[in-house]
Amino acid sequence: MTPIYLGYTFTIEPRDPATEILIAELGYAGFESFTETSTGVIAYIQKQEAFPEGEVQFDKLLNDIQILNSQEFKITYSAEEIEQVNWNEEWEKNFEPIEVDGKCAVRAPFHKKTDVAFDIVIEPKMSFGTGHHETTHMMIKHLLKLDVAGKKTLDMGCGTGVLAILAEMRGAQPIDAIDIDNWCYLNTIENVERNNCKHITTYEGEVSLLSDKNYDIIIANINRNILLSDIPTYASCLSEDGILLLSGFYTEDIPLISEKCNEHGLYFVSNYERNNWVACKFEKRG
């Protein structure tokens, strides 16, 4: 049976950066795909997966998003039943290859091979992490600068697996890639195989999987609230002089993130910034 989908059209004032926050939270709530618009975003979910308690439960989610992120923005929405969407066709229409610092390219299987040192082929489907978003782009920049050869690495919230794949291409091993979302977990496995990676192990789950683990480098491109919750665990898993790369938050969040890191022996080194998004590098010191 062809699944029936609901399309929620959100109008967000101001649109940025609230749109990215909303997309992240809706993804955790079971929404499968998103189309950004000039005024917000359209989000799609299978009708049978929608909130069993209806609009009251949905409105509570939107209210919780506002409270959790301490952002002043207004969200209004409408919903309608839509025909089945071919998600692959949707992203193929708009997915253009990107290049970072002339060294790394992220492209789809239907794009021509690029003449760069690290040519990554990603079929993102519904997963986050094509390199187009500012946070992924900046994390790629960090990995291109970092000496990762022979370093045990974690890609937490791996999405498509693009950062784990780049880490292996640059010599990191072994690598764990973890995502709580089943679709991301499966998509990472596909992309790891597509790029002939041999040293990446993919797991479905969250921070509890890190018990008794140890890494030289941890990459976490998630969102501010999850990072604040998980930083203590990252610190306990990171070797002395290890590197923690964090993104998924904004310039104004750096003091809050840095304070939490400092509490656990992690100290700010540097950061990149694009359109108010940041990607920070921290180092563990005794």
TrEMBL record:
<protein>
    <recommendedName>
        <fullName>Ribosomal protein L11 methyltransferase</fullName>
        <ecNumber>2.1.1.-</ecNumber>
    </recommendedName>
</protein>
<feature type="binding site">
    <location>
        <position position="179"/>
    </location>
    <ligand>
        <name>S-adenosyl-L-methionine</name>
    </ligand>
</feature>
<dbReference type="GO" id="GO:0005840">
    <property type="term" value="C:ribosome"/>
</dbReference>
<keyword id="KW-0689">Ribosomal protein</keyword>
<comment type="similarity">
    <text>Belongs to the methyltransferase superfamily. PrmA family.</text>
</comment>
<feature type="binding site">
    <location>
        <position position="221"/>
    </location>
    <ligand>
        <name>S-adenosyl-L-methionine</name>
    </ligand>
</feature>
<keyword id="KW-0489">Methyltransferase</keyword>
<dbReference type="GO" id="GO:0032259">
    <property type="term" value="P:methylation"/>
</dbReference>
<comment type="function">
    <text>Methylates ribosomal protein L11.</text>
</comment>
<dbReference type="InterPro" id="IPR050078">
    <property type="entry name" value="Ribosomal_L11_MeTrfase_PrmA"/>
</dbReference>
<keyword id="KW-0949">S-adenosyl-L-methionine</keyword>
<dbReference type="GO" id="GO:0008276">
    <property type="term" value="F:protein methyltransferase activity"/>
</dbReference>
<keyword id="KW-0963">Cytoplasm</keyword>
<keyword id="KW-0808">Transferase</keyword>
<keyword id="KW-0687">Ribonucleoprotein</keyword>
<dbReference type="GO" id="GO:0005737">
    <property type="term" value="C:cytoplasm"/>
</dbReference>
<feature type="binding site">
    <location>
        <position position="136"/>
    </location>
    <ligand>
        <name>S-adenosyl-L-methionine</name>
    </ligand>
</feature>
<dbReference type="InterPro" id="IPR004498">
    <property type="entry name" value="Ribosomal_PrmA_MeTrfase"/>
</dbReference>
<dbReference type="InterPro" id="IPR029063">
    <property type="entry name" value="SAM-dependent_MTases_sf"/>
</dbReference>
<feature type="binding site">
    <location>
        <position position="157"/>
    </location>
    <ligand>
        <name>S-adenosyl-L-methionine</name>
    </ligand>
</feature>
<dbReference type="Pfam" id="PF06325">
    <property type="entry name" value="PrmA"/>
</dbReference>
